[in-house]
Amino acid sequence: QVHLAESGGGSVHAGGSLKLSCVVSGLPFADYCLGWFRQVPGMERELVATIDNYGQTKYTDSVKGRFTISRDKVKNTLTLQMNSLEPEDTATYYCGADRRWAGGCADPPVFDYRGQGTQVTVSS
Q1: pLDDT digits (tens, 9 = 90+) for 63-95
Q2: What stretches of 1-124 show up as alpha helix (H) in DSSP?
Q3: Are 71 and 20 in contact (CB under 8 A)?
Q4: What is the distance between the alpha carbons of residues 33 and 29, in angstroms, rounded to a whole number?
Q5: Omega before 41 cis (within 30°)?
Q6: pLDDT for position 28
Q7: How many CB atoms neighbour CB 93 within 10 A?
Q8: Cβ atoms of 89 and 27 closer than 8 Å
Q9: Burial (CB count within 10 angstroms: exposed 0-12, middle 13-18, buried 19+), residue 64
Q10: Do 69 and 52 meet the contact criterion of CB atoms below 8 Å apart?
Q11: d(CA 109, CA 32)
Q12: HSE of 100, CA atoms in CB hemisphere, 13 A
Protein backbone atom coordinates (compact mmCIF):
# COMPACT_ATOMS: atom_id res chain seq x y z
CA GLN A 1 0.00 0.00 0.00
CA VAL A 2 1.36 3.38 -1.01
CA HIS A 3 1.74 5.86 1.79
CA LEU A 4 3.16 9.38 1.88
CA ALA A 5 3.42 10.96 5.30
CA GLU A 6 4.37 14.60 5.78
CA SER A 7 5.69 16.13 8.96
CA GLY A 8 7.47 19.25 10.10
CA GLY A 9 4.84 21.91 9.68
CA GLY A 10 4.18 24.54 12.32
CA SER A 11 3.89 28.21 13.12
CA VAL A 12 6.78 30.63 12.75
CA HIS A 13 7.37 34.35 12.44
CA ALA A 14 8.36 35.89 9.14
CA GLY A 15 12.01 35.26 8.45
CA GLY A 16 11.97 31.94 10.25
CA SER A 17 12.64 28.45 8.94
CA LEU A 18 10.92 25.10 8.81
CA LYS A 19 11.91 21.75 7.39
CA LEU A 20 9.21 19.53 5.98
CA SER A 21 9.71 15.80 5.55
CA CYS A 22 7.75 13.21 3.61
CA VAL A 23 8.35 9.53 4.18
CA VAL A 24 7.38 7.48 1.14
CA SER A 25 6.50 3.79 1.33
CA GLY A 26 4.89 1.17 -0.87
CA LEU A 27 6.31 2.30 -4.21
CA PRO A 28 9.64 2.11 -6.08
CA PHE A 29 11.17 5.39 -4.90
CA ALA A 30 13.54 5.78 -7.85
CA ASP A 31 10.74 5.50 -10.42
CA TYR A 32 8.92 8.60 -9.25
CA CYS A 33 9.20 12.30 -9.66
CA LEU A 34 8.61 13.80 -6.22
CA GLY A 35 7.41 17.23 -5.31
CA TRP A 36 5.73 19.59 -2.90
CA PHE A 37 2.65 21.61 -3.56
CA ARG A 38 0.62 23.89 -1.32
CA GLN A 39 -2.99 24.81 -0.97
CA VAL A 40 -4.75 27.73 0.62
CA PRO A 41 -8.52 27.39 1.09
CA GLY A 42 -10.35 29.11 -1.76
CA MET A 43 -7.24 29.37 -3.91
CA GLU A 44 -5.73 27.21 -6.61
CA ARG A 45 -3.19 24.57 -5.71
CA GLU A 46 0.36 25.79 -6.28
CA LEU A 47 3.28 23.57 -7.24
CA VAL A 48 6.21 24.60 -5.05
CA ALA A 49 9.12 22.37 -6.08
CA THR A 50 9.96 19.11 -7.78
CA ILE A 51 12.95 16.80 -7.84
CA ASP A 52 13.56 13.90 -10.17
CA ASN A 53 15.50 10.74 -9.52
CA TYR A 54 18.60 12.33 -11.05
CA GLY A 55 18.57 15.23 -8.62
CA GLN A 56 17.27 17.85 -11.00
CA THR A 57 15.15 20.39 -9.20
CA LYS A 58 12.65 23.01 -10.17
CA TYR A 59 11.03 25.72 -8.07
CA THR A 60 8.21 28.14 -8.45
CA ASP A 61 9.58 31.67 -8.75
CA SER A 62 8.29 32.88 -5.39
CA VAL A 63 10.40 30.38 -3.43
CA LYS A 64 13.62 30.37 -5.45
CA GLY A 65 16.61 31.07 -3.24
CA ARG A 66 14.59 30.39 -0.07
CA PHE A 67 13.43 26.77 -0.36
CA THR A 68 15.50 23.68 -1.08
CA ILE A 69 14.04 20.33 -2.08
CA SER A 70 15.98 17.11 -1.66
CA ARG A 71 15.41 13.36 -1.66
CA ASP A 72 17.14 10.54 0.19
CA LYS A 73 16.95 7.20 -1.61
CA VAL A 74 18.19 5.29 1.43
CA LYS A 75 15.55 6.66 3.78
CA ASN A 76 12.90 7.01 1.03
CA THR A 77 12.35 10.53 2.25
CA LEU A 78 11.61 13.80 0.53
CA THR A 79 12.40 17.04 2.32
CA LEU A 80 11.73 20.73 1.84
CA GLN A 81 13.95 23.16 3.71
CA MET A 82 12.16 26.48 3.92
CA ASN A 83 14.12 29.56 4.94
CA SER A 84 13.23 33.25 5.08
CA LEU A 85 9.58 32.35 5.35
CA GLU A 86 7.01 34.97 4.46
CA PRO A 87 3.34 35.27 5.45
CA GLU A 88 2.49 34.46 1.82
CA ASP A 89 3.97 30.99 2.36
CA THR A 90 1.15 30.15 4.76
CA ALA A 91 -0.65 27.07 3.39
CA THR A 92 -1.13 23.37 3.78
CA TYR A 93 1.82 21.64 2.18
CA TYR A 94 1.53 18.27 0.48
CA CYS A 95 4.09 15.91 -0.96
CA GLY A 96 3.30 14.05 -4.14
CA ALA A 97 4.66 11.32 -6.40
CA ASP A 98 4.33 11.09 -10.20
CA ARG A 99 5.44 8.03 -12.17
CA ARG A 100 4.67 9.15 -15.71
CA TRP A 101 8.31 9.76 -16.65
CA ALA A 102 9.92 6.86 -14.75
CA GLY A 103 11.88 9.02 -12.33
CA GLY A 104 11.97 12.16 -14.42
CA CYS A 105 9.62 15.07 -13.85
CA ALA A 106 7.03 16.20 -16.31
CA ASP A 107 6.23 19.90 -16.49
CA PRO A 108 3.93 20.08 -14.72
CA PRO A 109 3.80 16.77 -12.91
CA VAL A 110 0.53 15.01 -12.23
CA PHE A 111 0.80 13.38 -8.85
CA ASP A 112 -0.53 9.84 -8.65
CA TYR A 113 -0.21 9.88 -4.90
CA ARG A 114 -0.11 12.55 -2.25
CA GLY A 115 0.10 12.80 1.50
CA GLN A 116 -2.41 14.16 3.98
CA GLY A 117 -0.70 17.51 4.26
CA THR A 118 1.02 19.53 6.95
CA GLN A 119 0.08 23.08 7.91
CA VAL A 120 2.60 25.91 7.69
CA THR A 121 1.63 29.24 9.21
CA VAL A 122 3.87 32.28 8.95
CA SER A 123 2.96 35.37 10.94
CA SER A 124 4.17 38.86 10.21
Answers
A1: 999 999 999 999 999 999 999 999 999 999 999
A2: none
A3: no
A4: 9
A5: no
A6: 92
A7: 23
A8: no
A9: exposed
A10: no
A11: 10
A12: 11
